[in-house]
Design brief:
4-stranded mixed beta sheet; single chain; Glutaredoxin; 4 strands
Length: 212
């Protein structure tokens, strides 16, 4: 059986939703960052990176969201979360997901984990202050992509990229990392994805259905 190690509301929600979309049978194992669970020997034996998500499979543990999404899409092709039959379309999907993983996600860590990038309170505050400006710039590229195509990230077909965008677009509602009001297509996309039953199931399981 698959086992997902996750933290409610964290980026691990992305594979959580994907597992629900696939109809997979899986076990949920919460990792409580407030208690330092991610740094305990028991969890580091599962994921030495000390992060979520981690997906335990019968062949080993997978980490990194794009890799987990690729594994799920390939393991459950009937869910149609990735266009395996089209090499270019699959590469385009990977490019979108890596853009969020390596650009937007890293930017947001300057808010949540500034100590990973700088020492001293002035430096940390300077990092945080820069995030909204850069976030608006990065998300504008996605806004333009949706405006030109849509209704989903890659056109008419719902894929794992839409799950990725839903979660990171939702983080903009926090108010300290960009302006969702300037991104009407992303707002409509978020509403569209939020209405999916698989999203509702994942949010209920994480105790977030009322706030997300």
């Amino acid at each position: 059986m698959l086992t997902l190690f996750y933290t409610p509301g964290a980026c691990s929600m992305i594979p959580h939703i994907a597992l629900e979309e696939c109809g997979a049978v899986f076990e949920r194992r919460p990792v409580d960052f407030s208690k330092g669970d991610q740094l305990k020997p028991e969890y580091l034996a599962i994921n030495p990176k000390g992060r979520v998500p981690a997906l335990r499979t019968d062949r080993g543990v997978l980490t990194e969201i794009p890799a987990i999404l690729g594994f799920l899409a390939r393991s459950f092709p009937e869910a149609r979360l990735a266009p395996w039959e089209d090499a270019y379309a699959f590469a385009d999907l990977q490019a979108f997901q890596m853009y969020i993983a390596t650009t937007i996600h890293v930017l947001f860590r300057q808010i949540s984990r500034p100590e990973s990038f700088a020492d001293g309170e002035p430096a940390k505050q300077a990092l945080k202050a820069k995030v909204p400006e850069m976030s608006n710039r990065y998300f504008q590229l996605i806004e333009d992509k949706l405006a030109a195509g849509g209704p989903y990230v890659h056109g008419d077909s719902y894929t794992s990229s839409d799950i990725y965008l839903f979660v990171f677009g939702s983080y903009l509602r926090i108010g300290d990392r960009g302006d969702l009001a300037c991104l009407p297509h992303i707002q409509r996309h978020r509403t569209r994805v939020r209405a999916r039953p698989a999203v509702e199931r994942a949010l209920i399981a994480e105790g977030l259905a009322q706030t997300w």
